[in-house]
Amino acid sequence: MAVDPEELDHLVALFDDTDTFVTEQVDARLASYGPEIVRSLRNRAEREPDAATQALIVARARALNTEFKLADFQDFIGRETGPLSLFEGSWILSSLFDYTLQRERYEDLFFRCSQEYLAENSDQRTGVENIRILNHIFFHRLGFTLYDVQLRDPRYAQVSEALRTRGGNPFVLSFIYLMICQVSGLPVELVCFPGGFIPVYVENGKELFYINVYRGGDIFLKDRLGNFLKATGLQIDTKAFRRRDESAMLTLYLESLRYIYGNRKDEKTGQIIDRALDLLGPERYLTIDEQE
């Protein structure tokens, strides 16, 4: 539905009205335009000379974007057409937290990364060979770099920003790494345990080897899992390991965001993250106390 510029100006003029009835009517009319209203409000904010009015427009755009994107995420999770697309999930979540993000720009950022490996991928190589090539491209040619291991800085917590700068925290880099694996057809899944996860290469239902994205994609067999756990500071029996589907990466990523914004006492963002997490179901993988 096309947005009428004159009506939009009229609605914007009512943004500072404190009457509840007026506010509800304005919100309902804005929402009736559908997701396109977010772009229109963003463009309108850029033309607004008054700072106070501009702030009201931006706040309205962000609130509407939150509702539209959470609805998109619910529809995405509810699809029963096969494995969830990590790219699609990452796009929805990235645009949930950044109302200015454009789909075309996001696709281009990811395509530039994934195409580097797709050009080298081959069915004639072993799993270990393909992962070693991916590691070289991901960490050296593309230059993805690990930052903020303690999960303190929101700057390194967004997939879209990491695709642009080639740097991010452990959850973000793992997310992008798995996205590339998925679009390339590499059978890399997640093994989860209380407090964390580890990617695993699976062939014919058998776990062949594990990949430590935290350490440049280090490849190791099951007998080194104990060393991996010690390095992460966890004392967990490997019997607690469980292979999980793609939705686990979405949950882990949102849990990491909840931890970061919880530490920053940003409950407004935290509530949005909680709503997204609730759509994924009750299972959680991190046992970090957000109050620490």
Number of strands: 7
Large-scale geometry: elongated
**What is the number of helical segments per DSSP (H or I, 4+ residues)?**
12
CATH architecture of the largest domain: Roll
Give the biggest sheet: 5 strands, antiparallel
Structural commentary:
With 292 residues, this protein is of the alpha+beta class. It folds into two domains: 5-78, no CATH class; 86-279, C8orf32 fold (Roll). The chain has twelve helices and seven strands. The chain has helices at 5-12, 20-32, 36-47, 51-78, 86-97, 103-118, 127-141, 159-165, 170-184, 225-231, 247-263, 267-279; strands spanning 145-146, 167-168, 188-193, 196-203, 206-212, 218-220, 242-244. A five-stranded antiparallel β-sheet has the order 6-5-4-3-7, with helices on one face. Strands 1-2 form a two-stranded parallel sheet. Helix 6 (103-118) crosses helix 9. The protein is elongated and about 65 Å long.
What is the element layout, followed by pairings?
Blueprint: H1 5-12, H2 20-32, H3 36-47, H4 51-78, H5 86-97, H6 103-118, H7 127-141, E1 145-146, H8 159-165, E2 167-168, H9 170-184, E3 188-193, E4 196-203, E5 206-212, E6 218-220, H10 225-231, E7 242-244, H11 247-263, H12 267-279
Parallel strand pairs: 1-2
Antiparallel strand pairs: 3-4, 3-7, 4-5, 5-6
Helix pairs in contact: 3-4, 4-5, 4-12, 6-9, 11-12
